[in-house]
Specification:
Shape: globular
Number of strands: 23
Distance between the termini: 64 Å
Mean pLDDT: 89
Oligomer: single chain
Strand content: 15-25%
CATH topology of the largest domain: 2-enoyl-CoA Hydratase, Chain A, domain 1
Helix content: 40-55%
CATH class of the largest domain: Alpha Beta
Length: 713
């Protein structure tokens, strides 16, 4: 039987939902039932490797949702878990198939009740002084905890949490007192007064936490969490997004949004304006200044929403919206006055945070110039044919560096979580030319090879790719292709994140079911495909192993795909037909030169040893002040050593390209951030090692061409 093309598979998949929609029970389902039904069908019929929606799946969702709501194990009682599980643990799959939604509502009701109890306890506990001479400790590794067996045990967990938070603040106040006691005008307080002050600060923090529960843990908010839990149980990258979250996701992917152009920060539980973009609607209004506190947000003439309990991301989602619409901000000015400011939303580009940018590492001793291109994500404006695309921007940066006559290039993909599949394929082509880049396979068809048609190569010189534990998806496709072709050297953590799956967004619409566009009920980001290297292996779970491994703190934290029990497995398929790149250097020689440097580099030995020590010390903390001080002193010493080791003692000379120096002259905020970026690069021990590797490649290349070699030190 002839296999269906992937796009036809998707069309038929969507068509099945129209059939499903017309065959449901006669009683119209409510919003929750409608969403659960559509999501259930989508997971079963469209997911790359669907699990059976049965009692076993239901129990996994139940446990995961309970843990998502109460990961510290101090909200639910063991009896809460048992009683809810007895009725609903095997019922969620039935709800996904059309039964009335009851499980989520029951769990939500118990959660709300326990949070209110916890809020009351917090006030009562913090009303009395703590005794920091008692020998006891608080658990910090929540994965090892079970739900408390009694009210007394649950209350005691809250007591220890509050005592720990207060102890932190109390010790800080004591240290401040010791450091400032001889300062003129400093008011010296007794230890008793400082303990009360520490409890007051903890009470303020907890008050904000409980306000957030009220503001952002409504039934609708928790239902969105519940649906995301269901999706995540199928695999970690299948997810559910409420409409406002889908819009935010698209904005982050494109690097553009419609808003007011103000940078916000959270300070003392309030949403404060920290800076205004030059030429933005916020600046042009003349009514907003740095330090203004935004207390409420209204959409046009609609009701104002109080921001009490909101974090910055929540506030941003309210302030952004459709182009040309009005947002009204209730603002408390620095002089204490309150005013309502109406601003029309305009297109804003988050150019510094989102888009590719470059710099040059200058080494007058070695007579080399190495370009670095930083790419935070593989962005693409999918809905705007004239919008920015990451591969085109990278091509521009490569050309700028070539014009500056750099001897080698480093592509920095650290913390790059991926993005557009099309863009990464085209970006590989800039460095290898025509040929296959990645193989993509859905659950029905055999693998499809995505390749570059253009034979031209934009850059053919020495190349290195920097990665870490958070380089994922499209970043791994790029690193894997460069590695398989032998085009460059991969430098960084033992391996990248390990996400080898492809997702596509499907909208949930009240009238039309599953759509590409309308999503008034939400959006499911569904895993439809898996991708494989041209050499045949998947990057799923394994990631891309670095050619040159540099120890890092994050390598011991177990944050990769392989550490998630719901992750899809690793597998292999047949390799694609491709021709390796021919270069003057060989990887074995490059690795040997790097190994020689690392053997004598004490910084990386400190990073490795201290990272392992710090992870072991995080399971619990003493609540006895003397023991706590000793623990904190030891942790601080190791942490300070670790931080110092990650910064070069002799900084590198890193500059912007001459044409870029005055790029942000009209925007002080961006100019300062560019300055800080260059400073952080100049101190970056990992970048320094990457630059040394590229210098080795340059040296070998020069020797092969009988040119002047690089002077090694």
């Amino acid at each position: 039987m002839k296999r269906l093309p992937f796009i036809l598979l998707v069309v038929l998949l969507i068509g099945s939902f129209f059939a499903f929609k017309s065959s449901v029970a006669r009683t119209p389902p409510g919003k929750y039932e409608q969403i659960m039904g559509l999501v259930g069908q989508l997971l079963v019929q469209g997911h790359f490797s669907p699990q059976n929606i049965d009692d076993n799946f239901s129990r996994k969702v139940f446990d995961k949702f309970m843990d998502d709501l109460d990961f510290e194990k101090n909200v639910f009682l063991k009896s809460d878990y048992d009683s809810l599980a007895a009725i609903y643990a095997n019922h969620i799959d039935d709800e996904m198939k059309g039964a009335p939604v009851q499980s989520f509502l029951a769990i939500s009701a118990v959660f709300d009740k326990r949070i209110q109890e916890s809020s009351n306890w917090s006030k009562a506990i913090l009303a009395k002084p703590f005794d920091f001479t008692v020998n006891e400790s608080v658990a910090m590794n929540f994965d090892k905890l079970q739900y408390p067996a009694s009210e007394a045990e649950r209350r005691d967990r809250w007591r220890k949490k509050l005592k720990y938070l207060t102890l932190e603040k109390y010790v800080d106040l004591l240290d401040e007192k010791k450091a400032n006691k001889d300062q003129k005008g400093y008011v010296i307080k007794s230890d008793k007064e400082l303990e009360a002050q520490a409890r007051g600060r903890t009470d303020t923090v907890m008050g904000r936490l409980f306000e957030r529960y009220k503001a952002k843990y409504t039934d609708n908010d928790k239902f969105d969490m519940f649906m995301n839990t269901i999706a995540n149980t199928m695999d970690p990258h299948t997810s559910f997004m409420a409409p406002v979250d889908r819009r935010y996701f698209d904005e982050e992917m494109s690097g553009t949004f419609f808003g007011i152009g103000a940078l916000l920060q959270q300070a003392d539980g309030k949403i404060k304006i920290s800076s205004l973009n030059a030429g933005s609607p916020a600046e042009k209004s003349g009514q907003l200044q740095n330090g203004d506190i935004i207390t409420k947000v209204a959409q046009g003439d609609g009701p104002a929403e109080d921001l009490m309990g909101y974090n910055v991301q929540d506030a941003v989602k309210l302030i952004r919206g459709k182009e040309g619409t009005i947002v009204k901000l209730t603002v408390r000015k620095t002089d204490g006055t309150v005013k309502v400011v109406a601003i029309k939303r305009e297109k804003i580009e988050a150019d510094f945070d989102t888009y590719a940018r470059s710099a040059v590492i200058n080494d007058p001793v070695k007579h080399t110039k190495v370009g670095i291109i930083y790419l935070p994500e593989f962005y693409a404006a999918f809905d705007d044919p004239n919008g920015r695309r990451s591969y085109l921007d990278v091509a521009k940066e490569v050309q700028k560096l070539k014009d500056a006559k750099v001897n080698g290039i480093i592509i920095d993909l650290r913390y790059n979580g991926g993005g557009s599949l099309y863009d990464v394929v085209q970006m590989v082509g800039l460095f290898v030319g025509k040929g296959p880049v990645v193989q993509v396979k859905d659950r029905i068809n055999r693998a499809n090879v995505l390749d570059v048609k253009d034979e031209s190569v934009l850059y053919d010189g020495p190349l290195a790719v920097m990665v870490n534990e958070f380089s994922a998806s499209a970043s791994e496709i790029f690193a894997a292709a460069i590695q398989d072709y032998g085009r460059g050297v991969i430098i960084g953590s033992t391996s990248t994140f390990g996400k080898g799956t492809v997702q596509r967004n499907f909208g949930l619409d009240a009238k039309n079911g599953i759509t590409y566009g309308e999503s008034d009920l939400g959006t499911v980001k569904l895993t439809l495909q898996k991708f494989y290297r041209v050499s045949g292996g998947s990057t799923q779970l394994k990631g891309v192993e670095s050619d040159i491994v540099l120890p890092s703190y994050m390598d011991v934290l177990k944050l990769k795909e392989k550490d998630n029990k719901d992750a899809l497995p690793y597998d292999e398929i047949a390799r694609a037909s491709y021709s390796p790149w021919k270069s003057s250097w060989n990887l074995g020689e490059i690795k040997a030169l790097s190994d020689q440097r690392l053997k004598t580099d004490s910084a990386f030995k400190i990073i490795k040893a201290n990272s392992q020590w710090l992870v072991r010390e995080n399971d619990e903390s003493s609540l006895n002040i003397d023991t706590y001080r000793a623990e904190r002193k030891a942790i601080k010493a190791k942490s300070d050593q670790l931080n110092a080791a990650q910064k070069l003692k002799s900084t590198m000379d890193i500059t912007l390209l001459p044409a870029e120096v005055n790029k942000f002259a009209g925007d002080k905020t961006k100019a300062e951030r560019a300055k800080q970026w260059l400073k952080s690069l100049s101190e970056d021990i990992y970048l320094n090692q990457a630059a040394d590797v590229v210098d080795d490649m340059i040296n070998i290349d020069r020797l092969a061409k009988n040119a002047t070699p690089v002077v090694t030190q």
